[in-house]
Amino acid sequence: MRCPVMDNPPLKLAEFLPDRLLVLAEVVAQPLARLCSEQYGLTIAEWRILAVLNESGQLTSAAISHAASMHKVKVSRAIAGLEGKGLIERTANREDMRETFVALTDKGLEIYREVASQAQEFSLKLTARLSKSDMNALWRIIDVLNESAGGDIG
Prior knowledge:
Elements: H1 17-40, H2 44-56, E1 59-60, H3 61-68, H4 72-84, E2 88-93, E3 96-104, H5 106-126, H6 132-149
Antiparallel strand pairs: 1-3, 2-3
Helix pairs in contact: 1-5, 2-5, 3-4
């Protein structure tokens, strides 16, 4: 059975912004994902949690989920992986024993700094052809699109 092809489709994938952004995000994230995985044994989710903890210090998993804009199940799995690698440690919240705080270990901080340095180099190479005004416009556009979509980044 053959599917009919529309002469004038209502949506062309190559001109559909959400798809273009999704493809761009995947293409841009691949080198960082390889770096994290091959050199450090980290997933992107684990790397993002290390970055959040470096920026914010000790947090609960719910706070990490919010700060990293990641689903709580993904955060929980990544925290378990990081704890198993000795990169984070958990301590009980004395005021609410159902909750724990998560913080970087010295080893976690060291790994974070190594990956962050390489990630920063990658980011600079990626944006090298953009002028300062292009970068400012890009950040502004990302913020507007995120706000329009109901997101909470930045």
